[in-house]
Amino acid sequence: MIHQLRYHMNFVLLMARASAGKNALSEAKCQSVLPLDTVVTVLLSERIARKVQLVFTQFLADVYFETEIVEIRTSLSTDTMVWKVIGAWTATVQLLKSTVELAGGEMPAPDLPYVFDGILPALRDFYRYVYVFVSALPLFPLARRSR
Fold first, then answer.
1. Counting C-beta atoms within 10 Å of the first and last residue's C-beta, which end of the chain has fewer, N or C?
2. Is 131 exposed, middle or buried (0-12, 13-18, 19+ CB in 10 A)?
3. CB-count burial class (<10 Å; 0-12, 13-18, 19+) for 100
């Protein structure tokens, strides 16, 4: 059972890494294999292990946030599912902060990779590629003038 889980985690991570950068065709294929609602379900579930959520967070960042597909980028900035994930990430970071403060500065090991290798880079990518991109779009595109 553990080997099957590790296989699937590695497969999801491989898809994410293959889509990183400017690779719209690969991104579109990965988005069809793992739709956004499936990724969000994994990320919001409390029953899913942090190691699995880490892989899906990296997938979300590489395949959805860093996408070259303009329509996806534009829709993500207002997608309620994405904002629920960002809210859950914020709660996780706050919980980690509170835990560290209560423990006198010691950090719990299970959440460290998830926060530092998953959540923080994904938030950076969201604000770099999605939020800034959409805020730079004109509110009212210029209409073409006929002569």
1. C
2. middle
3. middle
- Whole-model pTM over 0.90: no
CA dist 61 and 67 (Å) reads 9
What single-letter DSSP state applies at residue 121?
A: H
Place of tokens 């994410």: 16
Contacts of 9 (CB under 8 A, 6+ apart): 51, 52, 55
Query: Model confidence over 13-67: pLDDT tens digits?
Result: 999 999 887 788 898 999 999 999 999 999 999 999 999 999 999 999 999 988 8
